Amino acid sequence: MRSISPLVALVRSARGWRSDVGLRETARRRNSNRCRGLWLGLLGSLLALWLAPFTSKAADENKLEVFSWWTSGGEAAALEALFSAFKTQNPGVDIVNAAVAGGGGSAARPVLQTRLAGHNPPDTWQTHPGLELMDQYVIPGYCEPVTDLYRTNGWDNAFPKNLVVSMMTKDRKIYAVLAGVHRGNVLWYNTKLLEANGIKISGRLTFDEFFAACDKLKAAGIPALGVGDSGIWTSAELFENTLLGVVGPQGWSKLFSGAMQWDDPQVKQAIKLFAKMLDYVNPDHSALSWDQAIKALMEGKVAFSSMGDWADGEFVAAHKKEGEDFGWVNHPGTDGSFMVIADGFTLAKNAPHKEAALAWLKTIGSKEAQEAFSPLKGSIPARTDVDRSKFDGYHQWSMDSFAKDQLVASCVHGEAAPAAFQQVLNDVVTAFMVDKNVDNFANTLVQAARESESPK
Ligand code: BGC
Questions:
Q1: Are 10 and 59 in contact (CB under 8 A)?
Q2: CA nearest 367: which of 199, 195, 204, 155?
Q3: Which comes out higher in pLDDT, residue 27 or 249?
Q4: For residue 289, how far is its CA from the centre of ligand 1 (angstroms)?
Q5: Strand locations in 17-131, DSSP E?
Q6: Strands 186-190 vs 94-97: parallel, antiparallel or unpaired
Q7: Which atom of ligand 1 is nearest to the CA of 104?
C-alpha cells in the first residue's frame, strides 16, 4: 500500500550530501593537528544537525497522508486502486495510508476528531457529505474549500449538482470531492441457498414475501438474515432501511425536516417490523463485523443481508458471480428510493502536504480513477460521464436507480442528521435488541430530535 521508493531516493541523496562533507573532513583531519580535527568534527556535526530539519522536511514534503476506514477486503482493494491512480500521476509522492479499521467509520471518526482538535490533521480524510461534512469539519474550520478544483478541471457538469450543491457546499464554496456513491437499501442474497429452499425472487420483495421466505428458511434451520453488528451501525442500518420501506421517500424528508414525528404510527410500524426481523438473525451476529456477515452469506450460512453496496466490493474481492452466487433486490418496501451514502475526501486546513493533497483530490475526481475505484468498491462513480461498459450488472442497476429513483440521505451514515442524533439512534437500537420496547425506541428518538438542531 505504501510506496517507499521515492522517499528512499530522497533520503539517499541527503545522506550522500552529508557523507561528502564527512569525507572532506577526514582528508583535512589527516593534515591537521588532533585538536583542529576535533573542532572541525564538531562543526561538521553541528552543520549536520542544523541541516537535518531541512533535509527531513524535504523528504516529508513528498508525502501524502490519506485517512479513511477502508480496511475490509473490498475496501482495501478499491483504496489501492485510488492510490495506484495517484502514483501514476505523482510518482515522487509517498502515500501514508492512515486507515483506521472499523466499518462505517465508528472507530475512525473519534481518532480523526482527536487529531483535528490537536492541530495534527491528515492531509485529506474520508467523509460523508451532508451534516457530517458540515457540522464536524467545515463549520469548526478544519477544511479548506476546493471550489477551484471544480472550476479548473471542468467538474461543474461532471458531478451531480444535487449532491454537490445541497450536501457539500457552504457559502458557495465546495468542501469535498466525491470518490463514489453507495446505495444503502440493498438486500443481498445467496442465490443457491434460496434456490435450494424453493425461494424465488423476481425483481422486488414486499415485507410479507420477505417474512414468508424467512419462515421457510427458519423451518429448514437456516438463519435467514445475516447481521454483523459488532459495530451496532449495521443493525441501525437494518432499521434505517426498514423505516424507509415503511415511510417512503416523502415520509423520510418529513421525518428529517420535523414535519413527521418519530413516534408517528408509521415509525412505530417500522420498529415492529425491525423487531420481527431480529427473530431471524444469525445467533453470532454480535461477534461478527459487517464483512464477516457478508462472508457468512457467501458461505451459505445465512441467506440474506441488508447492507449498503460496499457488500458488492466483498463479492467482487471473493470472485463471486452475480446471479450464480449472489443476487440483490431493494430492501423490502424501498423500490423507487436510493439511499445515498456517498464517500468524499476533504482538504485539511493547514494540510502538511497541501500540494499533494490537491493532487490527490484531482486524481480521485478524474474519470480514470472513478472508473477504476467503483467496480471494486461497490459504489457507482460520482461522475455521471463515465464509460458504463466498464461496470458489471450490479453497477448498471445501481446507476439506473440513481438516475431515476428518489434520492434520500442516510441518517446512520451521518448525512441526514447531526452526530448526536446518529449516536442516540445507535444507542436505542442497542437497547432495543434487549428490551424490544417500541414506545421507548420511538420516544427516545422524539426527545433526541427535539434536542438536536436538526432533525426537529
Ligand atoms: C462508507 C463506505 C464503507 C462502509 C463500511 C460507510 O460509511 O461510506 O465507504 O465501505 O461505511 O465500512
A1: yes
A2: 155
A3: 249
A4: 12
A5: 63-67, 94-97, 124-127
A6: unpaired
A7: 11
Residue nearest to atom 10 of ligand 1 (CA): 310
Which is nearest to 227 in space by CA: 65, 371, 430, 419?
430
- CB of 345 within 6 A of ligand 1: the answer is no
Sequence-distant (6+) residues with CB within 8 A of 262 are: 255, 442, 445, 446, 448, 449
The Cα angle at residue 172 between residues 167 and 176, in degrees rounded to 5? 45
The protein residue with its alpha carbon nearest to ligand 1, atom 4, reads 104
The grid cell for 50 is 542544523
Cα–chain center distance at 114: 19
Cβ neighbours of 254 (radius 10 Å): 17
Q: Is the CB of 341 under 6 A from ligand 1?
A: yes
As a whole number of angstroms, the distance between CA 133 and CA 126 comes to 9
Q: List pLDDT tens digits, range 235-278.
A: 999 999 999 999 999 999 999 999 999 999 999 999 999 999 99
The three state secondary structure string of 233-270 is HHHHHHHHHHHHHHHHHHHHHHHHHCCCCCCCHHHHHH
Q: Is 130 in the pocket of ligand 1 (CB under 6 A)?
A: no
Closest-CA residue, ligand 1 atom 11, reads 104
Ligand 1 atom closest to residue 180's alpha carbon, by position in its atom list: 9
Is 180 a pocket residue for ligand 1 (Cβ < 6 Å)? no
Does pLDDT of 27 surpass 70? Answer: no
Residues 332-376 have pLDDT tens digits of 999 999 999 999 999 999 999 999 999 999 999 999 999 999 999
Give the tens place of pLDDT for each residue, 169-183. 999 999 999 999 999
On average, the pLDDT of the chain sits at 89
Mean pLDDT of 131-157: 97
- The CA 414 to ligand 1 mean position distance, Å, reads 11
* CA–CA gap between residue 369 and residue 28 (Å, rounded): 55
Q: What is the distance in A from the centroid of ligand 1 to the CA of 128?
A: 9
Distance 30 CA to ligand 1 centre (A): 65
69 in contact with ligand 1, CB cutoff 6 A: yes
Count of alpha carbons within 13 Å of 428, Cβ hemisphere only?
A: 26
Contact 225, 304 (CB under 8 A): yes
pTM (predicted TM-score): 0.87
Does any ligand 1 atom lie closer than 6 A to the CB of residue 103?
yes
Taking the C-alpha atoms of residue 227 and residue 62, their distance in angstroms, rounded to an integer, is 42
Pocket test for ligand 1, best of 71, 112, 178, 343 (most atoms within 8 A of CB): 343
- d(Cα 220, Cα 197) in Å, to the nearest integer? 8
